[in-house]
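Help!! Second protein's tokens look totally different from the first
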Amino acid sequence: MVMNKIRILLIRSYNTMFNKYLLVTNIATCSVMLGLGEVAVQQIEMYRNHREKRDWSTVGRMMILGGINGPLNHYWYTNLDKFFPGRNLGPIVKKIIMDETIGSVMFTSIFFIGAGLLAGHTLNDAVDELKSKFITVYKADLTIWPVAQLINFYLIPIKFRVIFVAFLSFGWCSFLCYMSSVEVDKDEGEISKVSLKAIKEP
């Protein structure tokens, strides 16, 4: 009985936030999801390597990065619907094409460059990391997000779309956090399990 009342209260509070503070809600959700993605990656690493201490500074950086991406996501999806209104196949296909050719490229670039700068790397190093990992990430993006966005644009109301993407992207955020922590062999074009942090340490 008490738990049911709490659940109803939480749902009402969340709906109120949606209606009154949509931008703030989207920013907070993106921030939390990216932070949780990093926590999930670290949890796996802790289990595999028998490591006990979590790197909360990296979790914090990912949450900051999610907070930066939040408003960008908010305005991106809001404007997509303004430019291509309707839920017919034509507008949906156009939105998916725009999202994959512009949105995905933009958000992936912001993620890796932002993660590099927040970690203390130079802009050139951050750009080099983006170049070395972009193709791998973009290939994965193309296998997941067109179908996800088809559902998003066809079924989900506009005000819930950023939240839908944020929750759906928990696994994607974990993948991005993992990609942010590994190094690419430029000669072989393969991912090696060597973190940038480990490379910098003597």
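Here's the second one for comparison:
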Amino acid sequence: MSLAEEIGRIDAQARRKLEKKLPSWAGAGLTVPSSLNLEQCSSEQTALYKAGLIEPGRRVADLTGGLGADSWAFSMRAAAVWYNERDSVLLEAVKCNFEALGVGNAEFCGYHVSQSSDDWKESLKAFGPDVIYLDPARRNSAGRKVFLLEDCSPDVVGLMPDLLALAPLVIVKVSPMADLTMLRRRLEGFLSELHVVGSSGECKEILCLCRRNASFDGIVLAEDGFVFRPDSGSTAPKVPPETSASLHPSHCPLRPAGPSRSHGHGRPWFPETLSASVPTESGLGELLFVPSAAMVKSGLGPGMCLMGYDDELAHFGKYWQLIENLPFASSVLKSLGKRYPQADVTARGVPLSSEQLRAKIKTKPGGSVHIFAIVLKGERRILVCKQML
């Protein structure tokens, strides 16, 4: 294979990955300078969710533009977008990509955003943002991962007073691995909400919504088109403004919407009583609820438990039909492999990893059966389950 053919093959692979992550960009002939740019950019689903948090007609500044997925989503809702990217190669690629995508309301800048520089502040002040968005780099100059907000680049903790002097709302995207308690401590006095965003069972990102002189209003869980926001003052959850149906509805499963029960028009309805879903007494024929990673991260709703089916809760996890409820004992583990030669295995809260548990049971992965080793009401149990039809 010639060098030109190899480059073409790599470009084709990158384009396929791009179109999977951002389906609305398919066929536009866009440029991706590096695989890292693609890896770090938001998916179309999560980008459109963030756009749905912005009121229509606002002016939005994206201080860490990257490949431009978030700025693209903002552009379809905002009056104007201030896109900033210090990497000049990436900046030029995004300019061309946005032209191909028909984005006509974006301003492009290449500032290094930090506390020690003022040029970006003057430009941003002239733009007059209503909302500032940042996705700070979570690697230091040596390429090592960092975990504290103030170690990210730019340092959003140190910059927050300046940012809120320029706009009334600052949205910061952080790692899905970030500790929520740590975020509340680091952003105390600024943080008003934490949004935990998931898709397909995975926790994709955490959004910190910061405002001037803010008190913390709580955690919002968003997953695959459904949003749960506990609201102690009302039986109906508050929801962010509805994203316009013109924002590619067929590719927007995380689009916020009003509390409607009509699923026929892509308008999901919102559960109001997740906390009312109480685990039932153990018994065969019951269901095992396994919360999604995003629900676990948020701390909202129950953990893994036996319960009756709850339609609202099903949007934030998966139900399994219980076949057997057994004690966590060596004799039980040995017998399971003979009766279930093929099964997936999960261990939670027991002194074995999932792989160690599989080795003890001696079962092969796959099939419709799933064996869980978990703690129920303080007791270690083995639950043999099958997929619900």
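Reply: Different proteins will give different token patterns, so don't panic. The chain has two domains: 3-251, 274-387.
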